[in-house]
Amino acid sequence: MRKRLKRLAALIEGAQIIGDPDTIVTDIVQDSRQASRGAMFVAMQGAHVDGHSFIPEVIKKGAAVIMTEQAIEPPAGTAVLKVPALDAALQIVVPAFWDYPGRQLRMIGITGTNGKTTTSYLIHAILREAGHKTGLIGTIQILIGDKKLPVHNTTPNVVDLQRILATMVDEGMEYAVMEVSSHALDQDRVAGCEFDTAVFTNLTQDHLDYHKTMENYRQAKAKLFAGLAAGTKPGKTAVVNIDDEAGAFMLEHTTAERITYAIKAEKADLRAVEVRLHASGADFAVQGGFGRIKLQLAITGLFNVYNVLGAVGAALAEEIPLGVIAKALTAFRGVPGRFELIDCGQPFAVVVDYAHTPDGLENILRTAREITPHHIITVFGCGGDRDRTKRPIMGRIAAELSDAVIATSDNPRSENPTSILAEVMTGVREKIGNKAVEAIPDRRQAIFVAIAMAQPGDTVIIAGKGHEDYQILKDKTIHFDDREVARAALGGMA
Fold first, then answer.
1. Where among 280, 299, 331 does a domain terminate?
2. 126, 278, 330, 355: which has the fewest Cβ within 10 Å?
3. Residue range(s) defining the domain that contains residue 79
């Protein structure tokens, strides 16, 4: 990709070029480590790091332009693009630099507190079964066809996102399926993306450290649906769970066509009926104006029934034939770290799940209760530097729905793990009664203790981290994978 600096500057009201306006820009980067010859480096003033301190480094790598809010002298051989507000400028310039890949692809966005990842994987599987070249951007990874890339945020920043979408276009993708977080919507990271189909899963307490109130959180989610009115693409659709009370709010904020889904609400366009859950999967029928399809799935839990309904709605919006939808769903084997069974031949179940919200934890525990003959042993923690109000709530849920609770550390970040545990335990003690309970800060030890407690017919739930293979501590990030630790504990029992 090549653009003249003056062409990019012309897009931004109040922009000034210091240096050669005919400078050729070959890339836009926000991370100095990604800088290369011809790149425009965005010098952001962050909370902890000032991007301007990396200017000498990017110049050595051949950066041609520095984009900044500050009036700085251009280093030798470079130009400066001074803009009134970096965030606003990036939202305009970056999509234009990459020729608006979010308009060239069919874009499907999924938002909600829980279920985004599984729903996105289900949609991705359906589209691939239909023969469409499909990319995916989400919490676990980025997929471009069969190529896998790591991911650092559920929704990347606008610079990284547009580059990823441009790569998808270059690789011949037809679709991009994206998890769209509330942070991304609030910060306009998806600027330049024109979504064709938007899916709403649910809204429960999360991220109040950032949004402060549930109303702010709800408003952020609604931006995805309000945004369907923008752009030039025809045939946009909102796919909304109306069993969730926030579903009506999302519908109020869109003028797009709509497909509603539910288990309870009879007026929904798509309903799941005759639902039967079992340890190895779920059987149910989806009925709507098209008629009825019966599904036998290899994933379990009522929450996954909702995820499937959202995926079916998105697939119908994209005019995927019912037979293709059913075939893809039947073949689907789940998502890493989402109610993932760890089977080493033991006579009890071990489940690793990403549940890190009150609603997410309640969902997996209620599912476990339905399929567990005997006791549920729950290992969980809460992250540091995040919404503190949910800690006692999750403690109460774990104590109420489990037969034994082991509270432990999650990603403590800058907080003291013992202090986090103390807040969790206030909730646990309210509901634990005479059931077994321990607070073990060391997560590995906590998992080993839980598995050692398990008897035939029990289920051990290890919640909070799911697919993550790291633990964020105050001064470092270490390798840590709940699934690996669980297998090590089970291996030690042999």
1. 331
2. 278
3. 3-97
